[in-house]
Amino acid sequence: xxxxxxxxxxLITEGTILFSAPGTDxxxxxxxxxxxxxxxxxxxxxxxxxxxxxxxxDYLLPMQELWSRHQIPVIFxxxxxxxxxxHLPETKGDETFWKEELFxxxxxxxxxxxxxxxxxxxxxxxGGMMGSKWAxxxxxxxxxxxxxxxxxxDLNAWERxxxxxxxxxxxxxxxxxxxxxxxxxxxxxxxxxxxxFFFARHLIxxxxxxxxxxxxxxxxxxxxxxxxxxxxPDEFKSRGIMKNWSAAEAAKGIEAPTLVINGVNEGAxxxxxxxxxxxxKDVKWVKLENSxxxxxxxxxxxxxxxxxEFLLGE
Length: 314
Hints:
It contains twelve helices and eight strands. By secondary structure, the protein is an alpha/beta fold.
């Protein structure tokens, strides 16, 4: 397995780009890390949008192997409020601040700050949700190809998929989930264990859970401002501003060739990605049969193969 230690430090760039976030006077910065030198290869760089809302880039780090294998520069960044970018805990609960457009603005600012004239984008989970509407509504200049990985086009369809999976849970696990929901006790040990049992079936099936995933979860645990404001504490039904979220209409405006990826028994079910597959003009759909929601860990070799073939046109 390739790792960051396999790449010369001279080929890894880390830094921040100032970001004037609408709605706050606080000086904000977006942290980024690039594997591979920009402009020193004919390959188009890939910008990676992590999930959440409220996680960090860490769980997607195995994708840096696109550089070591194919010389595709890979750009990771932590979205505002997450990871190593600026945190704004004072805005917790402020739904006028934590709007989806904030993340579009930040992405535009990152692209401009890095001087990218032509680039590809991969959004995973929430990253693909946010990226799909950004691409369909803003029609960003320079976007060559788009990958929507394990991202629902309709959050209600995601929730229906989760509800169907719960019907197959052991009775004691389902009982703990219902108990926590009825009491709105999201932090009890029993509820958290029940959620992790569910996740082991439908989020990531790798056991033990990879260190990179733990790192992203740890960041979310340190500051839940973004997650709580946008999605709420319930893993099975959005209670924040993401309630009834849909990209069905925005998908029709996506002009870049797009790859849609989903797995089995995950939230981004076939029903949930259907508006992408039917609405995007130039689209390819690949269903991975050996992973749920985190294919970069569950079936990495095949996942990277599918992505690299799409990006390189092979």
